[in-house]
Design a protein that fits this description.
The complex is a heterodimer of chains A (about 300) and B (about 250). Chain A is an alpha/beta fold and about 300 residues long. Chain A is built from 11 helices and 16 strands. Chain A has one domain: Aldolase class I (TIM Barrel, Alpha-Beta Barrel), CATH 3.20.20.70. Chain A is about 35% helix and about 20% strand. With about 250 residues, chain B is α/β, with parallel strands linked by helices. The N and C termini of chain B lie far apart (about 35 Å). Classes of the chains: A alpha/beta (about 300), B alpha/beta (about 250). At the A-B interface, helix 1, strand 5, strand 6 and helix 9 of A face strand 13 of B.
Chain lengths: ~300, ~250
């Protein structure tokens, strides 16, 4: 039987008891899931994308179904970093004490930097995950993530401010993700998270209009897993900093594939929305799946497919 | 939780009644919904709860797309995975006089469980149900046995009052003490404008929206209200008239 220690991985000196992290935007600030299971079993947790000011987000409809996944155009709805620090994090502390990733987004360099400053003040936050890849807001997020020079600039500015390890969440909606990844690494990023959603759309045949009020939205779910795995493989081969792999993970086998491709940890997103117990079940499945493939320690297989 | 299909009856050519075996279920609050997993569809389908007993759950749904078309093919004995008791349903108010219950089309089913609860608590109920045409009507006899009076409206005038539910408001004997409504957005909007003024909390409207998770995590169905943003799936689907922003 695989022991707890053999499930553990490490991100920038922070030990995760297992590599499974609920992905930002699919787990809120934890409250809805804490009613269902003990969140302390999670490797870590990345909270809902947070901006300096509160945001209502995009008009409805924000959700459309796709084969093997869904499109969302939520548009970074969040109560703003002050409310997160004052209200959400103290509430989260009542039921979760593990490593926490603060997912931060912005519309200007200054906003990102100010959010990093505010994040410095919370002992609960272990890692800042800079979202430069939201496809659903105009003029923000992706504007920084689609260009290597811009990505480097925001990384460098936040690295100077942040006292926490800084991970950059990358977009797959670029020509060469490794170019952006290398630019972030050179600018001081401590790690990378990828992939954010793939830009997509659907049309309502009755109305002859896009289903989403925002027309386009981010595609996630099992349909994107092979694309995400490929990008994790390419990126992990191009940088030395740790990579958190995500995109369509829905079972323990997907976790093992991501680790073999070079991810040090993984995030699980859309799966939580169709099965609120998804992360718990994946963590519980891991030892059996490891045994099935003769894996005695997760740390040993990170990047093994490259060797 | 897994449920077993007991019956899946056609009520009209596109409205079905699904009765599930649900031993040990926590009784729902009227107006709550379930999110149903359907083979081959990534997202669950939110469906309001129509009725329940200690070990059954009745859902009434309309076939509108490929997900609900698959649901309509389910046979007796099939296992179905549901997230149950979702959302914030109707709050049954205490009052003299009568409660007015207004439904439109496939918005009528959750009002059945509500009316049963109202009756169990001794409230008198008058209902107005709107449909497109006489052939779309379902459950009428069951509603009639529970209500003091049931007014039907049809858009084409094939039965009852011609027009919309608001066209039946003048037929009411006197002002209701409470109002509970569920139906398409244009119906709720028209009713919001036409309904008599009631004390805060005594007019409750149930909304439908495209959603992903159904339990408050994804923010896919957040709408703006006078009390700030609310998630239709978690803070709703029932909103009080006072908080609604159109």
């Amino acid at each position: 039987m695989v022991t707890q220690a053999e499930l553990s991985v490490s991100l920038s000196g922070i030990t995760l008891k297992n590599p499974v992290i609920p992905a930002s935007g699919c787990f809120g600030y934890g409250a809805e899931f804490a009613e269902l299971y003990d969140l302390n079993m999670l490797g870590a947790f990345s909270f809902k994308g947070t901006t300096l000011a509160p945001r209502y987000g995009n008009p409805l409809p924000r959700i459309a179904e796709t084969p093997g996944g869904l499109l969302n155009a939520v548009g970074l709805q969040n109560p703003g970093i002050e409310a997160v620090l004052a209200r959400e994090l103290p509430r989260l502390a009542q039921y979760y004490s593990g490593p926490l990733l603060a997912n931060i987004s912005g519309f200007s360099l200054e906003e990102y930097v100010r959010c990093c400053e505010r994040a410095n003040e919370s002992d609960q936050i272990s890692i800042v995950e800079l979202n430069i890849s939201c496809p659903n807001v105009h003029g923000g997020g992706l504007a920084f993530g689609a260009d290597a020079a811009c990505a480097a600039k925001v990384t460098a500015a936040c690295k100077k401010t942040s006292k926490k390890p800084l991970y950059i969440k990358l977009s797959p909606n670029v020509t060469d993700i490794t170019e952006i990844a290398r630019a972030c690494e050179a600018a001081g990023a401590d790690g990378l998270s990828l992939i954010n959603t793939l830009l997509g759309m659907r049309i309502d045949l009755m109305r002859r209009k896009p289903i989403l009020a925002n027309a386009m939205g981010g595609l996630s779910g099992p349909a994107v897993f092979p694309v995400a795995l490929r990008m994790v493989w390419q990126t992990a081969g191009a940088v030395k900093i740790p990579v958190i792999g995500m995109g369509g993970i829905s079972c323990a086998r997907d976790v093992l594939e991501m680790l073999l491709a070079g991810a040090t940890a993984v995030q699980v997103g859309a799966a939580n929305l169709v099965n609120p117990y998804a992360c718990k079940e994946i963590i519980e499945e891991l030892p059996t799946e490891m045994e099935r493939y003769g894996i005695s320690s997760l740390r040993e297989i990170i990047g093994a497919a490259h060797r | 939780m897994d449920y077993t299909v007991l019956r899946n009856n056609m009520l009209t050519p596109n409205i079905f009644e699904l009765i599930l075996h649900a031993p040990g279920q926590e009784p729902p609050q009227p107006g709550q919904f379930v999110n149903v997993q359907i083979d081959g569809q990534y997202l669950r389908r939110p469906i309001s709860v129509c009725d329940w007993t200690h070990d059954t759950l009745t859902l009434i749904y309309k076939v509108v797309g490929e997900g609900t078309a698959k649901l309509a093919k389910l046979r007796q004995g099939t296992t179905l995975n549901l997230l149950a008791n979702l959302g914030n349903g109707f709050t049954v108010q205490k009052h003299r006089g009568y409660a007015l219950v207004v439904g439109g089309g496939v918005g009528c089913p959750p009002l059945f469980g509500l009316i049963k609860t109202l009756r169990a608590q001794g409230r008198r109920v008058v209902a107005i149900f709107g449909f497109n045409t006489a052939a779309d009507i379902f459950y009428l006899d069951r509603f009639c046995t529970l209500c003091q009076d049931v007014h039907i409206t049809t858009v084409d005038g094939s039965t009852g009052t011609r027009g919309f539910v608001t066209d039946a408001l003048p037929l009411l004997p006197r002002r209701p003490a409470a109002l509970y409504a569920c139906g398409p957005m244009p119906m709720l909007r028209a009713l919001y404008d036409a309904a008599p003024a009631l004390p805060p909390g005594f007019a409750q409207f149930s909304f439908e929206e495209r959603m992903a998770c159904g339990f408050g995590a994804c923010m896919g169905c957040s709408c703006q209200t006078k009390e700030g943003s609310k998630r239709i799936c978690k803070d709703g689907p029932v909103l009080l008239k006072e908080e609604i922003v159109w």
